Amino acid sequence: MSTSPNASKDLEIAIEKLNFQHLNDNPTNVRFRKVSFSQIETDPDWQLRPKPSAPRKTLDVWSLIEITQDDIVAPFVVGTTTEGEEWCTSISTSHKQLFAPDLSGVITPTGSFYRLLEHNDDDPSISQTLMIVYSIRAWGYGRVVAHFPEVVF
To answer: Which is it for strands 72-81 and 105-107: parallel, antiparallel or unpaired?
Structure first.
C-alpha cells in the first residue's frame, strides 16, 4: 500500500500543528510558556514541608509550563512517568508549585508530591503537548485549545 505525496504532506502539516508553540495560536489572550531550568524557583523551606512517604508519580522527563492571561500566572508540570504515560500536575493561580532545591521533587497546590528525574530542556513532546490539551479541556478551558484536535488518553 502506497501513500500519495499529498497524503504524506497533509500528515506532515497536521503533525507540525501539534507542537507546543502552536498552543499560542489560540483565539484568546491565554499564552503558554515553558519555563527554563534556570528560571525555576526552588522552595527554601523544602526540608520543613511534610511530604507523603511515596510520590504520587515519578516523572522521568518533565517541564514546568506557565499559562498566563493578563496578570494571572498558572504553573503546572507536564512530563512522562517512569511507566511511560504522559502526565500533568494540578494547576492553580493562587498557589505556586514548590520545588526541591535540587529540583528532584515538587509539591503541587493540591499537596501531591511528585519525584522529578530529568528536566526537559526542549519544548514538550507532541504527546506531552496533547496531554496539556487534554488537561486544559478537562479543567474546563476547552475554548483555549479549540484549534487542537480532540484527544483521548
So the answer is: unpaired
